[in-house]
TrEMBL record:
Source organism (scientific name): Chaetomidium leptoderma
Name of the protein in its database record: Uncharacterized protein
One of the record's GO molecular function terms: isomerase activity
Diels-Alderase N-terminal domain boundaries: 56-230
Keywords, alphabetical: Isomerase
Positions of the Diels-Alderase C-terminal domain: 234-385
InterPro entries: DA_C, DA_N
Keyword Isomerase: yes
Family of this protein: Belongs to the Diels-Alderase family.
């Protein structure tokens, strides 16, 4: 595992014109990062659990570190979907980039993906709001987000020659750390797995999408959320397979991530169930303890659903489809004898592409059902992401 030295903040800022922090007025703090500017040697990444969840956790960039705000949503009927990334740092083999990416699927299965590499990004933290702005010097491309400091509301706004509109989230659960502790919590950890840092600002939320994409409307309401990750090295280097998702099923909100690290080969797990603004179940355990007292959960991959994640129709070199079509999720609390069970089936592919020679990565929309075993069974929708190892002999055709 790569060692990351703690370097003196002042020296780092002097060495890198790439990132600057300044006070705006008396109450707001601004941090700017420029495309292509980075320092030699390891960058400093923060792991302070008390830092506000939308504040930058990487303030000086080297040639491999990145910080990424992720937004996703699924329509109420599970047919349309969206994922959007706002990234600072190395991404898509571009060092010290400033990028917005959006991938969408209309209800009829039509897909669209766009990368917008711009010139700089500015994070502005104020007493009541935090905002991020990704833009180019000519001013004709702007990707931005604004969120309330209590993570009740968030809005993404895109203004460009190809995309215009907004994507709004209204929280249905509290911001959480890996393992489900509620922010702020001084004893929590933002380190989920080796080199994989994670904050979940909106585990589950109501979503409103009002975008116009190359002249075509993409308007709907549904379920979504957003999170942030920062990594000293690229995702495809530090990660193997993963399955991540969020859902609203009746009164319950569900957030889970089952992740295998390429750094140490181990599996890492987090699952949280919310009801209203309360966390009613949380665990980082994948098996029962010897004392049978700790909460735990399991995720079983299923392949009996209607949709495998796949390349867009008409692709010249389509990838093999995903090997699974959904999940069976069991969450157990031995102390209370409560058992939550949720079933997820993919209903739409948002994207499916090659992350590396050995990995395929995708985003899904889906249908979900479940609740407490023995109680009322609810229905809802889900959105999430998949990364799977390419099996030998299953390269693109």
């Amino acid at each position: 595992m790569r060692l990351h030295q703690v370097i003196d903040t002042c020296l780092a800022f002097m060495a890198a014109s790439t990132a600057s922090a300044a006070l705006k007025g008396d109450k707001c703090t601004e941090h700017r990062a420029l495309v292509g500017e980075f320092v030699q040697g390891p960058a400093m990444v923060s792991a302070n659990p008390s830092t506000h969840f939308d504040s930058p956790m990487v303030t000086v960039f080297d040639d491999s570190v990145s910080e990424n705000w992720s937004f996703d949503a699924v329509s109420e009927d599970g047919k349309a979907s969206l994922v959007l990334y706002l990234t600072r740092g190395t991404v898509a083999n571009k060092v010290a980039a400033q990028r917005g990416l959006i991938s969408v699927a209309w209800a009829n299965g039509t897909r669209y993906m766009e990368n917008a590499f711009v010139d700089d990004s500015i994070l502005t933290t104020c007493p009541e709001t935090t905002s991020g702005l990704w833009t180019n010097t000519s001013g004709n491309i702007t990707w931005a987000f604004t969120a309330s400091k209590d993570f009740k509301q968030s809005v993404v706004t895109i203004k460009s020659p190809t995309i215009n509109g907004t994507f709004k989230l209204k929280s249905r659960g509290p911001p959480i750390y890996p393992g489900g502790l509620v922010y702020p919590h001084a004893q929590a950890s933002v380190l989920f797995a080796p080199e994989m840092y994670w904050q979940e600002q909106f585990p589950v939320a109501d979503a409103e999408v009002r975008l116009d994409i190359r002249g075509t409307s993409f308007h709907w309401n549904g379920v979504g959320g957003r999170d942030k990750n920062w990594n000293p090295r690229p995702w495809a280097i530090i990660s193997q397979n993963w399955d991540m998702g969020r859902a609203i099923v009746g009164p319950y909100g569900l957030m889970f991530w089952n992740y295998t690290s390429a750094v140490d080969g181990r599996s890492y797990f987090s699952a949280t169930v919310t009801k209203g603004n309360q966390v009613i179940f949380r665990t980082a355990n994948q098996e029962a303890s010897c004392s049978n007292s700790k909460r735990y959960g399991t995720i079983t991959l299923t392949n009996t659903g209607p949709v495998h994640l796949s390349s867009p129709p008409g692709s010249e070199k389509p990838l093999p489809e995903s090997r699974h079509t959904g999940y069976l999720i069991d969450l157990m609390s031995p102390k209370t004898s409560e058992h939550w069970q949720f079933t997820i089936d993919f209903s739409q592919t948002t994207f499916w592409f090659r992350a590396s020679e050995t990995l395929h990565v995708g985003q899904f929309a889906g249908h979900a059902s479940g609740g407490l075993v023995g109680k009322k069974k609810y229905k809802g929708v889900t959105t999430g992401s998949v990364q799977e190892l390419v099996l030998q002999g299953r390269q693109s055709e």
